[in-house]
């Protein structure tokens, strides 16, 4: 699909693809927590040597770390769900923009993913690019890191 065929349904497909990626990452993080919690649990009826106790402590520590990842993934999923996929001509969270031959979803951090033959990445709300493009329209220019860019698409 080309950049002239944007509508709410296409934006929804982009958000759903992004949501699917975040859900998969969340499931993976939850699985890692469960694995580490299982490794941390010792049968209290058994006698344990120092290595068993050490591995149990390490498993518990890792479960705590992975628990933080789960919380971050849940927050990320909430941000994706909050994105407004209504077509727009002004950059705001939920807008899809293109510049420099690349496409982005505004308002959420995301690694590259593909929908309808187009590759997208995310622009997090705390990224310098987010501040630079917020409120702009297609054709407007902005500067990041001393380089000027032109917004080719805002939907």
Structure overview:
Helix content is 46%, strand content 18%. It is of the alpha+beta class. Strands 3-4-2-1-7 form a 5-stranded mixed sheet, with helices on one face. It has a two-stranded antiparallel ribbon with strand order 5-6. Helix 1 runs antiparallel to helix 2. The protein contains 3 helices and 7 strands. It is elongated. A hairpin with a 2-residue loop joins strand 3 and strand 4.
Write the layout of secondary structure elements.
Elements: H1 8-40, H2 50-82, E1 96-99, E2 102-106, E3 113-115, E4 118-123, H3 128-133, E5 141-144, E6 147-150, E7 153-154
Helix pairs in contact: 1-2
Oligomer: single chain
Give unreliable regions as ranges: none
Strand line-up in the sheet with most strands: 3-4-2-1-7
Give the helix level as a range of percent: 40-55%
User: How many β-strand stretches?
Assistant: 7
What is the helix tally? Answer: 3
Radius of gyration equals 21 Å
Q: Major sheet, described briefly?
A: 5 strands, mixed
List the helices and strands in order: HHEEEEHEEE
Structural class: alpha+beta
Tell me, what's the shape?
Answer: elongated
Q: What distance separates the N and C termini?
A: 14 Å
Give the averaged pLDDT, no decimals.
84
